[in-house]
Design goal:
The chain is α+β, with helices and mostly antiparallel strands and 531 residues long. It has two domains: 27-262 and 510-529, D-Maltodextrin-Binding Protein, domain 2 (3-Layer(aba) Sandwich), CATH 3.40.190.10; 271-503, Roll (Dipeptide-binding Protein, domain 3). The chain has 15 helices and 19 strands. Helix 11 (378-390) links the parallel strand 14 and strand 15 (395-401). It comes from Bradyrhizobium huanghuaihaiense. This is Peptide/nickel transport system substrate-binding protein.
């Protein structure tokens, strides 16, 4: 038997084992193409990880089914002055180990989330002071007004200071860590579920928290998560009833699932933008046959790559119509002036001419980093890009890896080890500032968290100045115009290649009622399951 068949058989056997272990009607079995790498909530800024950990950890705020910000560990808040936000904490809340939740935990979490090793540093600017007023009141003192301060706090999860100190996890666990920390393998949150057991890459079991402070809408008592990377095995498990929910459903299997008697596909628009980026910072690319210089520092090369990609072909052939080509690095639902922008046309002849003008008439060679278990058809998209760029003489060496290895390589703690890459981004604030600051802002590892997710190091100081104005502008029309000006600069620079917003596709048993959110966070505390 080949290695590939052995792995497939092992995965299938593990999946089939789900069916024979006893489970009540209030046990939900969930399979995702990716794994839950770490239980440390500051290790990886990634939506699937946020969704898993959102069952056990909580932030000061949360989002409801319509993505509206609602109170969570903070009961209420106000701004007594423009640069001071005061949060009144919920009393009587206990962490899963019985420790009381207090202001000390908020101050500790504010420090920890901004420490080296955290992939969540942009949740709270380094110059924000967090002050304990009393055990249940915390002030956030800002250097300047910020009307969207808490827009991304629903996935900034609060940790237990005492537990972290006792278990030597005061510092975050970096995504590139080779040895797991205590926080990587254990949790101690305040949420509606407790993790009973966690076997990375195998299975994670969630149990309902009997001492949860809030009211749970769903009826689940247990969630069993099993990563199943094989599309065929994952779909087979859903159709046979061995699992109740899978994410995602491969595009080619949607009609098959919808026509089955016991399952259906929940489809809807997603706010994540899939895009391609370039290393524009190094003087010489890490992974290329061009030595002594970096072709991507030339805007003509970036423009050539952009115009060589046939986005409509990707939509029809790879995504089978379940994508919306994008001219911007943000979904149109999240920016009022998005209709002002039109995507440049596919022009392979023009792309070839641009490469020649830039001094690469025969193209060049470069490695492309791509996850293969993160987005809908991510590896297939990258394969299509490889073929399209080959037409203009560019040889792409595709390195497609599971997201754990991919992120460990390309993110900050991995040293941004990439020359050319595919990534997806849902702005945590549901606002353009997050894209302008995190993805497109000049990367400054020493002084600020700006550009933390800017893997390629695109930098334009005029762009950053507009971003700073966007942050403090409270007039909506003026703010939108500033955002528009910033996007125009990014487009003129050919800073990135936005591809599309993909469609959500969750496979769900007809015994399960599961609300779907456009941010792709699968939240099971709303789910109900019947006999």
């Amino acid at each position: 038997m080949s290695v590939g068949r052995s792995l497939f058989a092992a995965t299938l056997a593990g999946t089939l084992a789900l069916a024979v272990s006893p489970a009540s009607s209030q046990t939900l079995r969930y399979a995702n193409q990716g794994d839950l790498k770490s239980l440390d909530p500051y290790t990886l800024n990634e939506s699937t990880t946020h969704a898993h950990l959102g069952h056990v950890y909580q932030g000061l705020t949360a989002r409801d089914k319509d993505l509206k910000i609602i109170p969570a560990l903070a009961e209420s808040w106000e701004t007594p002055e423009p640069t001071r936000w005061r949060f009144h904490l919920r009393k009587g809340v206990k962490f899963h180990n019985g420790d009381p939740f207090t202001a000390d935990d908020v101050v500790f979490s504010a420090d920890r989330v901004r420490k080296k090793g955290s992939n969540m540093q942009t949740r709270l600017a380094p110059d924000v002071k967090v002050v304990k007023v009393d055990d249940y009141t915390v002030d956030f003192v800002l250097p300047s007004p910020n009307p969207i301060l808490l827009n991304s706090w629903d996935v900034w999860y609060i940790m237990d200071k005492k537990w972290a100190e006792e278990n030597n996890v005061v510092d975050p666990t970096p995504v590139a860590a080779t040895t797991p920390s205590y926080a990587s393998l254990h949790e101690n949150g305040t949420g509606p579920f407790i993790i009973e057991s966690h076997q990375p890459g195998v299975k994670t079991v969630f149990k309902a928290n009997p001492n949860y402070w809030g009211k749970v809408e769903g009826n689940l008592k247990e969630i069993i998560f099993t990563p199943i990377s094989s599309d065929a095995t994952r779909v087979a498990a859903l159709l046979s009833g061995e699992v109740d929910v899978i994410e995602p459903v491969p595009i080619q299997d949607i009609s098959r699932v919808d026509s089955s008697p016991n399952a259906q596909v929940l489809k809807g628009p997603e706010l994540r933008t899939i895009f391609i980026g370039f290393d524009q910072m190094r003087d010489e690319l890490l992974y290329s046959n061009i030595k002594g210089k970096n072709p991507f520092k030339d805007a003509r090369v970036r423009e050539a790559f952009y115009k060589a990609i046939d986005i409509e072909l990707i939509k029809t052939r790879v995504m089978r119509g379940l994508s919306t080509p994008s001219a911007l690095m943000i979904a149109p639902e999240l920016f009022a002036l998005s209709k002002s922008f039109t995507r440049p046309k596919f022009d392979p002849d023009g792309a070839k001419k641009l490469l020649t003008e830039a001094g690469y008439p025969d193209g060049f060679e470069v490695t492309m980093d791509c996850p293969n278990d993160r987005y809908v058809n991510d590896a297939a998209i990258c394969q299509a890009v490889v073929g399209m760029l080959a037409r203009i003489g560019v040889k792409i060496n595709l390195l497609a890896q599971p997201k754990a290895q991919y992120f460990a390589k390309v993110l900050k703690q991995g040293g941004y080890q990439t020359s050319f890459y595919l990534l997806g981004w849902t702005p945590s604030t549901m606002d353009s500032h997050n894209v302008l600051y995190d993805i497109m802002g000049c990367r400054d590892d020493a002084k600020s968290s700006r550009g933390e997710a800017n893997l390629g190091g695109y930098c334009n100081k005029e762009f950053d100045a507009l971003t700073d104005k966007v942050l403090v502008e409270t007039d909506t029309e003026k703010r939108n115009q500033l955002i528009k000006e910033a996007y125009e600069i990014g487009i003129k620079d050919w800073s990135y290649i936005p591809l599309h917003q993909q469609a959500l596709a969750w496979g769900v048993s007809k015994k399960v009622n599961l609300p779907q959110r456009a941010d792709n966070l699968v939240m099971f505390h709303w789910a109900t399951k019947k006999e």
